[in-house]
Design brief:
single chain, about 350 residues, alpha/beta, Arc Repressor Mutant, subunit A, Rossmann fold, 2 domains, 7-stranded mixed sheet, elongated, methyltransferase, Methyltransferase domain-containing protein, Methyltransf_12, transferase
Amino acid sequence: MHDPTGPSGRLPSDAASRWELYRLLADPVRPRLLALAAAEELGVGELSELLREGQPKISRHAAALRDAGLLLARKQGTWTLLRLSPGAATDPVVADAVRAGTAACEADGTMERIGEVIAGRDAATREFFARAGRPLRPGPPLELGAYLTALAPLLPHRALAVDVGTGDGALLEVLSPLFAHVIAVDRAEAQLALAEERIRRRELTNVELVQGEYDAPDLRERVMSRAGEAGGADVVFAARVLHHAPKPARAMAALMHLARPSGGAVCVLDYEAHDDQALCEQEADLWQGFDPETLRRMAVDAGLVDVTIRRLPRAWQGDGPDRHLVWQLLVGRHSEETQGTAENSKRTR
């Protein structure tokens, strides 16, 4: 694009160039066009609507002003958006033209209509969303990872998470966008194969799969090695794991030992006590859930502090065979001060 401005950003001052500038701005449409482009970046069609001139005519005027370096154009799809060139109005003749054009546009109400024209840009969008649109898709959105990635910087501690009993890795789609690194452990090779396929399809590149038991020394060593000076994971998750544990209290203690001592969190999702023996047999459950006080006592005995328990809405419980049960979430924090007390208490029993 030709730019007649020199290093100073001002238009040339020689007589021939000044004469060309006066001639360029002599058409009354052009000062009005410059004024509108100075007020808002507008499309050629929008300028045509505002100035009540044919679009080919506006395009010709805009081309002349662009060639003179007074307008800048930006392509956006099929649109050409125009705005006043930075520094163009430092020339007194151009500044006078912009003032004259502004006064003319204000006098006939054209400036006031800019807002209406801008609002009309999303008319098609408004119409689209006003219709019924796509049918409601149950469950979390496929773009959940993008939302969680946006949320992640708001979390103070998100270096490492451990997913105990990861199964097919469903929880990894939540943890991976939130944490810098995730260790997912399961003792079943078949389950880890499903998790590995999920990781591949969903591009969860920061997840490390481990086959083994949640209370195995080598798992704790791996977590400690990954955690470094923190001494453990920021958060340890055990989703519907505890009712499969031969010794739930021991399992709770093992989860606690994977969390960092300075306030690492342990999150246990499991059932409240129920009487569905058939489900237990179907899912190979060892325990028919836990009443909240029993669950709380296990957490406190393990050395967790600030323990909270809440029931979850049934709508969050998926569509599996256990969806009719009451789900509860326990959250507690690892505290070095209580760990020694808890261990001494266990020795005296």
